[in-house]
Amino acid sequence: MPVKPDPTDTLKTQPTLLSKVRRGDEDGWTRFYELYNDFIYSAARAAGLSHEESKDVVQEAMITVRNYINRFVPDENRARFRTWLRKIARSRIADQYRRKKRNPLERVACHPPSEDSATSTTNRIPDLNEVELDRLIDGKLEQAIFTEARRLAKEKARMEDYQAYDLFEVRELRAREVATSLGISAVTVRVRAFRVRHVVEREARRILKMLEQPNRSG
């Protein structure tokens, strides 16, 4: 029987986590960084920035979050945390492209994201307009959500079920190939993969709901 994961070690604690970040709690901040580091980095890389520039985007985005999280006012209809974080990532990516056109020694001050921010991505990021960049960032966030959902599902599922899911759904091997590898029938492969896929989708919906909900705690 699988061991149930510690409920405090998952994205289900998102509202509490944001409250900790607001209070300057170092453990909360470390967890927050772990959750969003890869998402911001991969978005910057996909936008055409180098490894070092993308690392800078991560650092500057995190500084912006830390400096302005207390000014973020959640709203169910428009001011969701996910939207706020996306604006930060977009602005920091745009800053990197702006620096390419200016003196590299010039320091650009971090500032909170807003609809009227002077740091617009339009005409600064090659082949990407603002809508396309937002779509790219949202896609990377979705990948991050499913990565976390798979991690949680792996902790909850039986090992043999997750093996079938990983090979069939994630690595996209044919059912017959997976069946041969695991010594089971192709039908069993599909059944086991379905079980885990159901858990992954449930976890992803729950994570997304937490990101959409306003944080009124803290």
* H/I helix tally: 8
Shape: elongated
Mean pLDDT over the full residue set:
76
Low-pLDDT regions? 1-14, 102-126, 214-218
Helix content class:
55-70%
Assembly context of the chains: single chain
Q: In angstroms, what is the radius of gyration?
A: 20 Å
Task: Supply the helix-strand structural class.
Answer: mainly alpha
Describe how the helices and strands are arranged.
Layout: H1 14-23, H2 26-46, H3 51-68, H4 81-100, H5 130-156, H6 159-170, H7 175-182, H8 186-212
Labels describing this entry:
single chain; 66% helix; disordered C terminus; mainly alpha; disordered N terminus; 218 residues
Task: Write structural notes for this entry.
- The chain is mainly α.
- The protein has one domain.
- It has 8 helices and no strands.
- The protein has helices spanning 14-23, 26-46, 51-68, 81-100, 130-156, 159-170, 175-182, 186-212.
- Helix 4 (81-100) crosses helix 5 and helix 6 packs antiparallel against helix 7 (175-182).
